[in-house]
Amino acid sequence: MPAPINIFYVDDDSDDQMLFSEAFQEIKDASASALTLYKAGNGEEFFNLLSEKNIIPHITFLDINMPVKNGFECLAEIRASQQLKDKPVVMFSTSESRDVISKSYSLGANKYIVKPPDFLDLKIAIENCLQEFESVK
Amino acid sequence: MRVVDIVNKENQSIESCDQEPIHIPGAIQPHGFLITVDSSPQHRVRYCSANCMDILNRKAISILGKPVCDILSADDCTRLEYYLTNELFDTSFACTITGAEFNVTAHKVNDLYTLEFEQYPDGSLTVTDQFNQTKRFVRNIQQAESLQEVCQSIADETRSITGYDRVMIYRFDKDYNGEVFAESKRDDIQSFLGHHYPHTDIPVQARELYLKNLLRIIVDVHYMPVPVLTLDNGAGTQQLDMSHAILRSVSPLHIEYLKNMGVGATLTISLIENKKLWGLIACHHYAPKQVPFYTRLAAQLQGHFLTSQISVRESAAENELAGILDVRLDRLLKSIAKSDNFLAQPDILHRIADIPNANGVAVIRNGIIALSRSTPTLEQIKELLPWLISQSADGSYSTDALSQHFHPALAYGRIASGILYHNLGNTDKDGIIWFRSEMDATINWAGNPTKGDSEDPGARLTPRKSFELWQEKVKNLSIDWKTPERNAAAKLAHLLQGQFYSMYLKEEEKRYIQLTNSLKKANEELANINWIGTHDLKEPLRKIQIFASRILRSGNEASPTILDFVGRMQKSATRMQQLITDLLEYSKLNISSPNEAFKQVNLNDVVQDVARQFETDMEETKASIKVLNLPTVKGIPFQLAQLFVNLIDNSFKFAKKDNIPEIEIKAADVTIENIHYNKVTVSDNGIGFSNAHNEKIFDVFQRLHSDDFQGTGIGLAICKKVMENHLGKIVAIGSTNGATFELYFPVIKKES
C-alpha cells in the first residue's frame, strides 16, 4: 500500500470544486498512488480542516478571491507556519494580472496556474502539478 | 448800339430755391447805384443800374461805354484811380455827385470793377472805436464760460453797434439744418431762441455765396428792384456776377419769407470756421434800415471775433464733456469690477447706456442679449446685428441715420436712429450696441414756433412751415455722436472686451475643474470595470467553456447536433473571453501606474522576446520574422512588448491563405517638423487593407475583415494607445500586398 498523498483544494466556488473533484477523480482512477482530496471553502476552513483532521497537506491548491480569508492571506500563513512552510502551494486563480501573479510568487507560491477554460486542460494542469511536486504517475 | 437790361427773368417764376441763380439777378436794391467799369486805362462803363440816369441826370447811352471819369468830378476821378490802382477794396471813399455825398466801395470780378455808390456817408471808423470794440470783446470772451455765452455776448454787442431789433446767432449742424443758438432782441418781440430750420431754408447756392460774400444787407424788403443796364453788343446779353455786390437784389422767395415774418430789413454775416459755413449772424429789423459801411465793418468784425472763438470753445466743450464721461466711465468700471455678472444688474446696464449719452443699450455676450432702457425689440436687434457686423470691418460702426442704410430700421426710427456698435471679441457672439432716439424726440421743444405765434396760415413760406419741414428733414435722424462720446464708448467697449475675456477664462476654469473631476470619476469607474472584467465576466465564461468541454468529452451520451451546438457555444464563449482580456489590456493602458516608469529599452530585445511567443505559429506556417537593427528608445518595456505582440499577431491573423507569412521589422531616423524620430516599420505580405481605412483601423472593435479572420478589433487600438503613451504615433499604410505600420518614437535629447 503506497503512502497516502493528501491534496488540498481551497476554493469558495462550488462549480470549481466540482470540476476539480471530477478531474482529480479521473487522475486518481488512473494512478497507482494513494491520492486523497480535501476541500475547503476558504483559508479559515482550510486551517480548521488541518487541525481537525490533524494531517499535513502534500500539495495545496489555493484560489485567491475568497471570503473570510483569501488566498494571499492563506499563503502567507502557510509560509509563516513551522509545519507547513516547505510544503508546495499552487495558486489557482482566474486572474491573469501580472500584479497578482508576481505577488503570489513573492509570497512564496511554488506555481501559478490560470484556471483553464477546458476540462482536459484542467486535468492536465493538476496532473503536471502532482508529477512535479510528488512524482505521482 | 442799343441799351438793354440784364434782369434775370427766370428769378421771378421759380418755385424752388435750389435752382435760383441768386448771384446774377441783374438788378439791385434802390438804396444806391452801381457802375461796373472795365480794366482799360479809361475804365469804360460796361454796366450801370437804371437809377444812375436820375442821380447823374444822364441818359444811359451817355454813361454806358464812356470812360468813368466822364461822370465824376476831377477830384473824385483822381481818388478812384488811386483806389482802383491800389485795390483798396477793404475801404471806401466818399464822393460828391450832383451835390449829394456818396460812399463808394468797389470789388473786382473777372477784370471788371464794380463800383457801388451808397448815399449816407457816415464819416469813418476811428481807431478808438475799433480799440473799444476789441476791448469789450476780449472782456466778454474772458467772462464767457461756453461757446453759447460767447455767442450771446456777440449778439448783444452786434445789436448795440448796429441797432437792429433782433440779432440772432444761427448755427448749422453737419447737414446745414439750423438752430437759433443765441439771440439779442428788443424786449417786446417774441423770442426765436432754440428754433430749428431745415437746410432747405438756406439752399446750397446761397451757402456758396455766403462763403464768398461775408456780409449781405436788405435795406427794405418792400423795395422795387432796379435793373442793371448794358449795351447790346449783338453777342447776347452778358450777365454780371454780383456775388460780392452789396446792392445785389435778393431772391423773391427770400423776400416773401421775410415779409411773412413781418421783417423789414436784414443784415447777415457769415460765420466761417475751417472753410465751412458754421453759422450766421442774422440781424432783423421790423422797419427799413440802412447801415453805413463802417458800421457794417464793425459788425463784420464781431463775426471775425466769434469765429476766432469757435474752434477753441468747441474743443474746450469737448474736453469738458470728455472729462465728465471719463468720471462716469471710471465709476462704472469700479461697479463692473465688483460684480460677478454685471450683465444681470439693471443699474449697471443703465449706466452703460449713459457712457456715450445714449438712450438705450444692448450688450450681447455669448449670443445672449441684455437690454437696458429705450431699445428696439429683441427680434429687431437680432435682425439688425448681422447687418451691423457686416458693416463693421474694423470692429465698429456708427451712424445718426440708421434707416437710411438699413431699411427695416424705419419701423423703429423714433427709438433707434443713432447707432454706435462695437464688436467685443467674438464677432458673432459678443458685441455692444448703443441706441440714440430720433432728434425730434430729444430737442428743446421751447423752439417750436407753432406755439403762441400767430402767422397767416395761408402764407407759403413761414417759420412754422420751416419748422414742419425741419421736422420732416430730421425724421429718423439722431443727434450726431460727439467725438468724446465716441471715444468713451470705444474705451468702454475695449474694457468690456477684456471683462468678457476674463469672464470666459473663469468659466473655462470652472469647466476645466468639472472636466477634471469627471475624468477622475471616469478613471475610478474604469478601474472598477477592470475588476468586474476579471471576476464577474470572465468567471462565468470560463464555466461555460469548461462545462462545454466536459460535455464534448463525454461525447457518446449526446446527439451529434447537440455536440455541434455545444461546440459553437464554446467557441463563442472563448471569443468573448478573448474580447474581455483584450479590452482589459486596453483599459489598463489608460491608467498610469508608477511601476511603469520609462526606461531605455532596446527594441531588438523586445522583438526577440515577443517572437519567441510566436514560435508555434512560425513552425506551423514556416513564417519568417526578419528584424533589422532596431534602436533603443525611451519607453515602458511591457507596453512596448504589447505593441509588437499585437503587430506581429496581426500579421499572422491576416496572412494570405496560400502565402508563407513574411514579417519585416526595420528602423530609420527621420525628422518631421523639426522633431527627430526613431521610425520603426513593421510590414507583412498579408491580405492588407484599403488605405481608406488607415485611420479607422485603430478604433476599438473596428474590424475590417470578415469572421474568416480572427481578431477582436482591439489589438491595433492598443498599439495606438501605446504609441500615444510614448508621445509618438503610429501610421497604417494598406495595400493588397500587405500591411505596413510605421511607428514614430520621438528622440528625447538627454539633459546635459
UniProtKB/TrEMBL annotation, chain A:
Any single Pfam family the record assigns to this protein: Response_reg
Keywords, sorted A to Z: Phosphoprotein
Membrane spanning stretches: none
InterPro entries for this protein: CheY-like_superfamily, Sig_transdc_resp-reg_receiver, TCS_response_regulator
Gene3D superfamilies in alphabetical order: 3.40.50.2300
Modified residues (4-aspartylphosphate): 63
Ranges of residues in domain Response regulatory: 6-130
PROSITE patterns referenced in this protein's UniProt entry, alphabetically: RESPONSE_REGULATORY (PS50110)
Protein name as it appears in the record: Response regulator
Species the sequence originates in: Ohtaekwangia kribbensis
